[in-house]
Amino acid sequence: MAGKVKTLCQEKVVPIIEQMGYDVVDIEYSKKSDGMNLVFYIDNDQGIQIEDCEKVSKEIDELIEQLNPTDDQPYILSISSPGIDRPLKTIRDYNRNLGKEISITLFSKINGIKKFEGVLENFDEKTVTIIYKGEPLIIEKDKIAHIVPIIKF
């Protein structure tokens, strides 16, 4: 069901949000403590404010009701900012973090290490290159469980 909901929203709802000037970073349909939640994570160059979330919610609410992606199952619709420490998912996320420190956690160890921190030097469809201990390290994306920017305050 979650796959169907996400696919339908990707095809029919995301273009509307993008026409409004926002990027859809992710769509999540999952069970939370208050029931099923359909969450659209949006972003743009100016950052996301609560007013942006309200605007998008009002714009897509009726369309989602008409699409009925959950086959009449109750859910809570939420529009959210992905946050500054969100995982890198889109090309835009990777470009925004080039030259910055990132943390990579792998599904399984490479040379006895499962977590790497370094500067994002390059990326393509299949790999990520970081400067780790002064040397380039190329990691295949399908081996990465989690990749996030390192936020320093």
The total of helices stands at 4
Please mark out the parts with pLDDT under 50 across 5 or more consecutive residues, or reply none: none
Overall average residue pLDDT: 92
Largest sheet: 5 strands, antiparallel
Tertiary shape: elongated
Question: Whole-number radius of gyration?
Answer: 18 Å
* Pattern of helices and strands: HHEEHEHEEEEE
Count the beta strands: 8
Approximate helicity band: 25-40%
Q: Approximately how much beta-strand content do the residues carry?
A: 35-45%
The class by helix and strand makeup works out as: alpha+beta
* Distance between the ends: 40 Å
The main sheet orders its strands as: 7-6-5-4-8
How is the quaternary structure best described?
single chain
Brief summary of the model shown:
With 153 residues, this protein is α+β, with helices and mostly antiparallel strands. It has helices at residues 2-12, 14-19, 50-67, 91-97; strands at 23-32, 35-43, 76-80, 101-110, 113-123, 127-132, 135-140, 144-149. The radius of gyration is 18 Å and the shape is elongated.
Offer a few descriptive terms.
elongated, 153 residues, alpha+beta, 8 strands, 5-stranded antiparallel beta sheet
Describe this structure in words.
- The protein is 27% helix and 41% strand.
- The protein is built from 4 helices and 8 strands; from the N terminus they run ααββαβαβββββ.
- The model has no long low-confidence stretch (mean pLDDT 92).
Layout: helices, strands, pairs:
Layout lengths: L1 H11 L1 H6 L3 E10 L2 E9 L6 H18 L8 E5 L10 H7 L3 E10 L2 E11 L3 E6 L2 E6 L3 E6 L4
Parallel strand pairs: 2-3
Antiparallel strand pairs: 1-2, 4-5, 4-8, 5-6, 6-7
